[in-house]
Amino acid sequence: MQIRATQRLGIIGHDEDARASSETLDSNRNYDAIVIGAGVAGIYQLFRLRELGLRVRAIEAGSTAGGAWYWNRYPGARFDSESYSYAYSFSNEILDEWNWSEHFASQPEILRYFNFVVDRLDLRRHIQFNSKVTGASFDEDSGHWTVVVDDGTRLTTRFLIGAVGPLTVPTPPRIDGIDSFKGEAYHTARWPHEEVSFDGKRVGVIGTGATGIQTIQEVAKTARHLTVFQRTANYCLPLNNSKIPDTEQAALKARYPELFDRCARSANWFIHDPDPRSALDVTSEERLAFFEQRYREPGLGIWQGNFYDTMTDPAANGTITEFVRQKIRERVEDPVVAEKLVPHDHGFGNRRVPLETNYYEVYNRPNVDLVDLKTTPIKRITPLGVETADGLVELDMLIYATGFDAITGSFDQIDIRGLGGLSLKDRWADGPQSFLGLQVAGFPNFFMPGGPLSALGNIPRALEYHVNWITDVIIYMQDAGFGYVDVHSDAEAAWTEHAREVGRVPLSSKVSSWMTGVNTNVAGKEKRVTVMYRGGAVAYRKRCEEVAAGGYKELEFASPMDWAEPAPIRSATL
Ligand code: NA7
After folding, report:
1. Which of 20, 203, 268, 505 lies deepest, with the highest CB count within 10 Å?
2. pLDDT tens by residue, 133-174
3. Same domain, 331 and 356
4. Pocket of ligand 1, candidates 168, 227, 231, 528: which has the most ligand atoms within 8 Å of its Cβ, to mutate?
5. Cα(283) to centroid of ligand 1, in Å?
6. How far is CA 182 from the centre of its chain?
């Protein structure tokens, strides 16, 4: 992707005009661009737009930057992607200056990283913290968005960027009596900033997705007693994390270009890429040796870097499924408990694979019980604990690791209205529609890095690409003097149809999870729909680049824009 020669991507030497035009947060209510969210995408998008000389502001609900890594501060929270493959790639200065201490960094370090980037890029003064955008409406007369913040402030902006994150809105379970519980209760995505002690306490954890698995392995260490309430067993694999010694930092940094290049060429932006062989074309000895090797390696290689057909062909998938089932049985001493932990309702990798450190060994501890909700469902939550079909489990603390209203949920929270007052939530009532996951027809000058039907995977790699693409469109408009961009509805329909078609190929499309748009705790999200692009990052980028090289024919540009004059404050109609 081309970066405009006059725009500095380096940190040192900001564009002086950009500095001069930036306003203090409390005096300026008219912006060229408002970015909703100062997480992974929002930080970078803010930087790119500020460097274009635009008057920018980010509105962030947290009290500091970091997005998902600000909110998800539960014990055990850490990367499943290699730290250096998750970090921003756009600045050599940041790459040089930041040292990751572990191959898979923990949440406190990750949060420090994102705030280091914000300060290093001098972005903090453009971010309004502790503030939520509640609504945004496009005014067809002025060609501007009016953005409403939860303190009642109204701002206007030419461009609106919904950098709201795919996993932002936590969903507590819909269980009777949930509010009656008298002990401590936390959702993992709203974990307190103060230390939470499990010492001497009877703790219950509901949920065994990637978050629950990380939480459980930590809580088990100090809780008097831990009860895990598992509805669906997952295939969990060793993270195989380790420290990065100081002596290896330089060598690692020298490999950054190669590692980022590897991510760019891989199917899902990871450093792992599928093996070109079929699982069925090798001998059973070769297959087993390959699986063993992947099992011992760090990270998601056994999922993302397996035989190419393990995620699409049921027979190939069956081979790795049986391998992982056997591993679970080997690690759990009690065969009855082991069998509860072995998934039987889906194949390996058809849901998000959690990575763990001694997770299965937790169930060998005397202070840990597993409740299989498939055979022993929860009836209700009472003031004293969780009542299941087998009776009351008394608890001092209840932890909900019950996930998110994923992908579209963070957009649904905001009353976003485009042409003719059309609501984005209504527009997506039967499943999201978009162009490249980045724009929606009828919502001019609105962009969504990481939006529905974009290619995700190793999310920051994807987001960096999305932000670059969006920024290029804005540069194109700046150069041509356009102030309005919408996407042609036929281009949106074609992309949506294509995404739905390729979305039917992976075996995961037949399984309910947040990756197929299902959340049993959110009304209206019971049905599987295509929510992300599953045709692979390489194909995705090819299409994005074709659109740019073709002069953005799929987009409709209009309205000359005076880039120098601020937009007038308009009385909002929300
Ligand atoms: P997930 O992967 O959506 O997991 C949520 C877990 O909570 C999962 O085990 C659910 O069971 C369980 N759950 C949800 N609602 C209930 C109710 N009502 N009763 C019992 N159990 C329930 O969320 P995570 O936070 O773990 O991970 C999300 C992503 O964040 C992850 O993939 C990473 O990319 C980062 P279910 O499987 O639905 O039967």
Report:
1. 203
2. 999 999 998 899 999 999 999 999 999 999 999 999 999 999
3. yes
4. 231
5. 36
6. 32
